[in-house]
Amino acid sequence: MKIIIINGPNLNLLGKREPEIYGSQTFEEYFVVLQAEFPTIELHYFQSNIEGEIISKLHEIGFTFDGIILNAAAYTHTSVGIGDAVKSIPTPVIEVHISNTFSRESFRHQSYISPNAKGIIIGFGLDSYKLALKSFL
Prior knowledge:
Rossmann fold; 5 helices; DHquinase_II; 3-dehydroquinate dehydratase; DHquinase_II_CS
């Protein structure tokens, strides 16, 4: 099974940015933990702060991978283009958020990805990614 985790803007700052919301672990550190916990999955990781790069990555892998875990971060609430890209590919996408977006600012309650996602996992910290991986098994 081949799965990719795609993280959007500012998630490269995990471990430094707002640790009270996002924790103190970097995503790279957590990714090593995921790889060890799911050795039968060919796990890939991509992060970009640039909307077009995320769309291009979805187009690139959306016809060949078995699953996509997408945390589009702030683009979740603003990017019709990412939502359309998810709709355009056959690979199932699980939308993931580290924080509970519904307990935050009201603009974070809207998602352009959710209508086209296989499922949504919100608010379980970094373990949201682990839950998404388990959903593909």
